[in-house]
Amino acid sequence: MAIETEASSVRDQSHVEDIENVIIRFAGDSGDGMQLTGSMFAHNSALVGNDISTLPDFPAEIRAPAGTLPGVSGFQLNFSSYEIMTPGDAPDVLVAMNPAALKVNLGDLVRGGLIILNDDTFRANNLKKAGYEKDPREDGSLAGYRVISLALTTLVQNAVKETGISHKMAARCKNMYALGVVFWLYDRPLDLTERVIEEKFGKKPEVAEANKKALLAGYNYADTTEVFTSQYRVGKAVLEPGTYRMIMGNEATALGFVTAAQLAQKTLFYGSYPITPASDILHELSKHKAFDVRTFQAEDELAAVGSVIGAAFGGALGVTGTSGPGLALKSEAIGLAVMTELPIVVIDVQRGGPSTGLPTKTEQADLLQVLFGRNGECPVAVVAPATPGDCFIMAVEAVRIAFKYMVPVVFMSDGYLANGAEPWKIPSLESLPTIEVTHLTDPEGFQPYKRDPETLARPWVVPGTPGMEHRIGGLEKEEVTGNVSYDPENHQKMIRLRAEKVSRIAESIPELEVEGDPEGDVLVLGWGSTYGAILTAVQRARDRGERVSSAHLRHLSPFPKNIETVLRSFKKVLVPEMNMGQLLLLLRGQFLIDAQGLNKVEGQPFKIREIEQKIEEML
Amino acid sequence: MSVNTRELPPGKLDEIQNYARADFTSDQTVRWCPGCGDYSILAQMQKLMPEICGNLGVPRENVVFVSGIGCSSRFPYYMNTYGFHSIHGRAPTFATGLKLARPELDIWVVTGDGDGLSIGGNHLIHCLRRNVDLTILLFNNRIYGLTKGQYSPTSELGKKTKSTPMGSVDRPINALCVALAAEATFVARTLDADTKHLQEVLLRAAEHRGSAFIEIFQNCNVFNDGAFASFAERAVRSERMMKLEDGKPMLYGKDHEKGLRLNGLTPEAVQLGNGVSEKDILVHDEGAESAIPAYLLAKLDEEDFPVPVGVFRAVERPTFENLLLEQVTEAQKKQTRSLEELFRSADTWTVS
Hints:
In chain A, 36% of the residues lie in helices and 20% in strands. Chain A has 20 helices and 23 strands. In chain A, helix 4 packs across helix 8 (205-225), helix 6 (174-185) packs across helix 8 (205-225) and helix 9 (249-263) runs parallel beside helix 14 (390-405). Chain B has 352 residues and is of the alpha/beta class. Helix content of chain B is 33%, strand content 18%. Chain B has helices at residues 12-17, 38-56, 75-78, 91-101, 113-119, 121-130, 175-181, 195-207, 229-232, 234-240, 292-298, 320-334, 339-343, and strands at 63-67, 82-85, 106-112, 135-140, 186-191, 212-217, 241-243, 251-252, 258-263, 266-271, 307-314, 348-351. Chain B is globular and about 95 Å long. Chains A and B meet through helix 1, strand 9, helix 9, strand 11 and helix 11 of A and strand 2, helix 4, helix 6, helix 12 and helix 13 of B.
């Protein structure tokens, strides 16, 4: 639905200052509704035409003990009148709903930044829980920041009293009150968000009413009490013309697979076992049954991938989704898909590892697992989206590859892409690639492992096709016939063929593009979600006149054909990764290039500044 | 599934009803050990397939055998149908995905006591509780054959094998109890050596809509020869085994002179006569709503009671794939938006 995006307020606008860019972080207890608040601000920003990028950051516990440091949940939003690629390095504004939120986030705030506090929570017990010996509002810890301290809980309770809602429920509206305050600060229309509140709490009109009242009260409070000296406005960003919506990575992934199935005129079968941060893909797909999406919540990860291989054997588009620990469990079955040469897609939304690791935090440390974490020589194709919106395109690409080459494809997203949001230019159907699938039905000369001479794909003959009954399985196959074979030479040949089939994918993928000059002093090469931070850092270095370029891999197996040429066109190569140097190991091993790594495994995405610094060091 | 519910092209039904055993025999050399009980099961299956396909109106190309790993799991290679020899323990998962993608297929799962009850126990339980329309054959030889003779989860306590030279110390699991606990809608037991009974049970299972589970006692003449001899030997069969028949009293013995009765909740093996008449004997009701009577039969101790074979339970419940597809149909009826409308199903704005 299209939205009117004019500001609704009819006030004197003379105090409104235009600025280009703001980074705001909402932080509070897990139960304070910070994710919702942040998402609503992001939605509002997108609809007024800003470019946006978000970074939700929440604990693995559903409700960690209230008021404690591990219980702090945050949502960072970067909104801008120019094109932005990341959620921003350091927030300009911190909304802290309790002492713990202040403590956890203060260090990230820019010097001189604005802090909005919920005064009511700064009591002895909360301060103690947050590990504050003294009240930070009074001991000088906040010197150098602009602090606005509001009794949010008290204010909101008074504001919504008349709705008759309980005292406790009233207090829970304080996030909307805080949002109202910052909405005034950034001169935002309330109606867009009021509508979101109505949709969100549609089943409980009194709760919706209280939340809307809280939002308006916060807005009016800021307007009338002059807590801020002026208002700011971030104008519309100049984006490529088109129709946009806001999209999160997991949502884009789900839509991408629905689209790919439609393009290929296939049933989409999604078998999955719930796991953070991949579960939202299952949730999203389960809503799209009308597109003949069949979702199956399996009993475990092994069953999830097994069901998908079974569905692929039957001729459906089989997709499974998981995160690192689940991928480990799926390994054996992925090997079976390699051996039986069936097209499936495995989504790995990476999170911090090893083991259970950091379920809600991001990391890129599954790359070597994806490439090599199976028994035997077991090559698969690997794609990696670069941004939340790119998840859509790469999902379609994963399916194209799987079908064309009859090969399992791993789609490597991560927690940052999965939960991050950005404006997404809605594609026209004509702009999408066609995905052709043929199922051989002529029994004449049929052999289960007789390959297409160009792609080396074997024919995809599905049960139900008369006269072509055949058996497949995990035992080594004899070339052409597909019969079980223990012949030594055949085994070597089949291993080479399976590898060759994957490497031939390079014939149909785009070459690696260099952003900036095609040669120079430093190439910054990345993959996956590091795209925005790398691109911005390199742009900044180039703005300073440095001979730096960047390139981003969206295909990791096989690599684009020109990768070595690109690498050799620069004196130095820097590979920033949220792991200990996994792509780096591949590049060094495969091309004997002395590339350097920048490795961060803190469960947080790169800051632009971190990459910039490393580039400076290398120049 | 019946002939009149499926649409077949003209002449197809004729073709189906004229299948012969040879149509289901693949060109692959069977590689089980000579004397293995699997030969008997394979032979009965190949022999029965024309009848099963004819009865159900299923063309051969719609028949799929899916297996895991183990001796029994080589089965699909020998059937001239579509087949998938998958990985250890996971056959029900592949079969489930295949059935959900292609509900018109007639899918058989072949597994063993190790494959189905040890490494794949979880999948078996969940497949059965969902009531996916599959027929699951569990070849139980109470031993690991393919890995050359370790005890299995159905081996008797104290079993001396290569891996348990002093005897196994874990209690065996009862396949039928597992199936019944999972609320399987069709649960049966038969044995390789009694080919007539094997055929009867296979036919019944093939006709069942929903998960059909059959435990087949199967002799491994290399690593566990005679595992079932104490009751399955022809000479003792009538005394030591009890064939369950729906609606009939549970009698056994050469002249049906013995029977099973309940004393409170405890079953008793009794001799007819001396005040005990047929009306004291339990009557088998395979369609009983509750799985408890079937569970009681499955739990009968092999030493003290005759071993029941036949259909323990057969009830009708909606199948998983039908329920799922009904949701798909319902969603399609309710919503007719295009892909582009789906993309635009959030708030949008236009940049010009």
